[in-house]
Write a structure and sequence with these properties.
- The protein is built from 11 helices and 12 strands.
- The chain is of the alpha/beta class.
- The protein has a single domain, classed as Luciferase-like domain (TIM Barrel, Alpha-Beta Barrel).
- The radius of gyration is 18 Å and the shape is globular.
- It starts with a strand and ends with a helix.
């Protein structure tokens, strides 16, 4: 494989400890946990899940995928991330996202900003998180945050700050946030702009769209590593046939099929400049059917 694969855990129906151990044994480079409370089903808590995974593994990278900036402050995000970095002995990556699932946010009693405000809030949070991670303190006053944290930890005593990773998809966030972070993961563009995931929009995403976003990142951050997010369905025609009809024949359609077909499609993303792919499931069990190590 020319790309590294990260296995994204999203299901209460699967033990996160066994999921992480099996992913590590199969040759995945990383495991991650989604940060949701609910959508069509309930989700496990991101920090609890990652802590359990950290204690159950030895090699794989761990990451939040992606911590929801609308559900918590960047101070909590960094505080939890530094604790995970210490617990995992330096294997954690701090993934922060703007937040996109409207019903989840408003159902939790919190405001859901329009897309421009959400993007500006996200940029401020990235600036705060970066300062806290690099300096262990932050003073910041902006449009959305008034922060005064004199010390945060654990840092020092062998604990090095984790890399800061941003999930980006639109031109504004790419231009204004990509230069601020240690890694970018490109998500599915405008498919969540409405406040939920649009399968029709997902089916319309092309490899050219992904390549254009990679080029946009390179314009403002020439050296930042770039990953991508993929939703996969691995199995027989009977198992994945219904999903194939929903995702069409463009980019996401190539991530539906047999193990070999999906692995080849994921590996092909290296051709447009992607070095890592985080995979999530459209059909339950798909991730551990990949077996990227053999």
């Amino acid at each position: 494989m020319r790309v590294e694969l990260t296995a994204n855990y999203t299901s209460l129906g699967v033990d996160p400890v066994e999921f992480a151990r099996e992913a590590e044994a199969q040759g995945f480079a990383g495991v991650s946990s989604a940060d949701h409370i609910f959508r069509t089903a309930a989700y496990p808590h991101v920090w609890v899940t990652l802590a359990a995974m950290a204690c159950a593994t030895e090699r794989v990278r761990l990451s939040s995928a992606f911590a929801n900036n609308l559900l918590r402050t960047p101070v909590e995000f960094v505080h939890a991330g530094l604790s995970l970095q210490a617990l995992s002995k330096g294997r954690y990556e701090a993934g922060l996202g703007a937040g996109w699932l409207a019903a989840e946010v408003t159902g939790s009693g919190l405001p859901y900003p329009d897309p421009p405000a959400r993007a500006r809030r996200y940029r401020e949070a990235v600036l705060i998180a970066r300062e806290l991670l690099r300096e262990g303190r932050c003073r910041f006053r902006g449009e959305f945050y008034d922060i005064d944290v004199p010390v945060i930890g654990p840092l020092g005593d062998g604990v090095v700050a984790p890399p800061l990773v941003a999930s980006l998809g639109g031109p504004w966030t790419i231009r204004h946030i990509a230069p601020l972070v240690d890694r970018v993961e490109l998500k599915f563009g405008n498919t969540t702009r409405s406040g939920d995931l649009s399968m029709d929009a997902l089916a319309a995403v092309t490899l050219g769209d992904l390549a254009a976003n990679v080029a946009a990142v390179r314009e403002v951050a020439p050296d930042v590593p770039i990953g991508a997010f993929a939703m996969i369905a691995v199995g027989s025609d009977d198992e994945v046939g219904a999903v194939r009809g929903r995702v069409g024949s463009e980019l996401y359609g190539s991530f539906v099929g047999s193990r070999q077909q999906v692995l080849e499609a994921l590996d092909g993303l290296a051709d447009v400049g992607v070095d890592r792919v985080q995979v999530s499931e459209l059909v339950k069990g798909s991730i551990l059917r990949l077996r990227p190590g053999g």
